[in-house]
Amino acid sequence: MEETMSWNHKNILKIKSDPLREVDIDAGESAESQHEEVDTGRDTLENLQKEIEPWLTALFQSEHLSLLVGTGITSAIHIMAQGIAPQGMSLMEFSVFREQIDKGTKESAEKTGRGEPNIEDQIRVANELIRGMEIYLSAHPYGVKKLTRELEKFKKELEAGLAEFTNNVLSTERNIVTSDNLESTIEYLSGFLVSFCSRTATRERLNLFTTNYDRLLEFGAELAGVRLLDRFIGTLNPVFRASRLEVDMHYNPPGIRGEPRYLEGVVHYTKLHGSLDWVSQGSGIRKFALPFGTDRDIRDYFPRTSDSGAVSQLLIYPNPSKDRETSEYPYVELFRDMAAAICRPNATLVTYGYGFGDDHINRIIRDMLTIPSTHLVIITYTDEGGRVKRFYESVGRPAQVTILAGKHFGDLKNLVDYYLPKPAIDRATSRMADILKSRGWINPTAQSGEGNA
Fold this sequence. Notes:
By secondary structure, this protein is α/β, with parallel strands linked by helices. It has helices at about 30-35, 45-60, 70-80, 100-110, 120-140, 145-175, 180-195, 215-225, 325-330, 330-340, 360-370, 385-395, 405-410, 410-420, 430-440; strands spanning about 10-15, 20-25, 65-70, 205-210, 225-230, 230-235, 240, 250, 260, 265-270, 275-280, 285, 315, 345-350, 375-380, 400-405.
């Protein structure tokens, strides 16, 4: 079945039902009129690779390079590991204020162009309802006992829903780490990450952004020998510091005078929507010890003395903190990091698995493209809801946008094998198996056969 996207610029490759049939759509002509004129010699994998890999290699050596990763990366890795997509995040069920939540959730989804609401819309509306009810009840301390009881019941249901939500994310991690195909899966994840990390010593760090709550990127980076700088300082109980944005790692080459060089394999890492292992403690934000893919309930990792709202203190966006100032921090700092990283001359932003459903992020990318020397590369498996197409048409700068769209380009194996630049510091291949074996994630005897790609 042919994709529904209809593009109109040569930088966009549209995928037909045949995964290797690519069509360049030149400006001013329709896809239908050009389909018959396509040079079939160009439709081979070899020719595609010769055209795309050098282009991406050049872009990856831009003065400033950033990568924005969405839920598509988790889906791709889960499919590699288990052969199926991860479990979707179903909406929560409420016994009180149900109509208000349903109405507000639908309106929230429509504003972002998603059409179908997701659990983030629901959490956002639930937070707004709680805050509004608390303001109302603070002015009416008497005579509203029933409403107060309903609000407390609603908070408990929200807490239970958040626990189920986070446990579902943990189950996705667990499915990946317990897979029989783990070694091959991690090889592709590591290869994907290291392709972007392979920057020359004089180039600025890769800026890695994600909207995901899971720790898949941290997991892959650790196995690939990539160091993530994420603003958290400390070893036993890391704390978020807004002042640590420019922390970096350098070295002085022996016998060479001048400025120090960047140490290889270091990345500035920003989780725009928070993480499963971030928690609000007092006036600070800390990262707590949460094993990757644990099979325990998320609530088991909170002190037994915690109240029933412990999970509500997890820093996942939009978190249900009662304090509006707290709910905006640290997210406002993280979005500012992204704006500072990409809205600069000679900057390239690559997105993979991001569906352009976040207005805050889309606004920053639009601002970036107002700088003529910037470039945006969108790699997407599909365009459900047409959000990618609408964004592309809204920015009105086709020469600054490259889109690799469809099942062929969106497949992580194809990207790593054929199109992404071959890493110059690829330590994943040489060290990955040893690390996996030392941590008991694979059997030493399972080194050959089906597990290898």
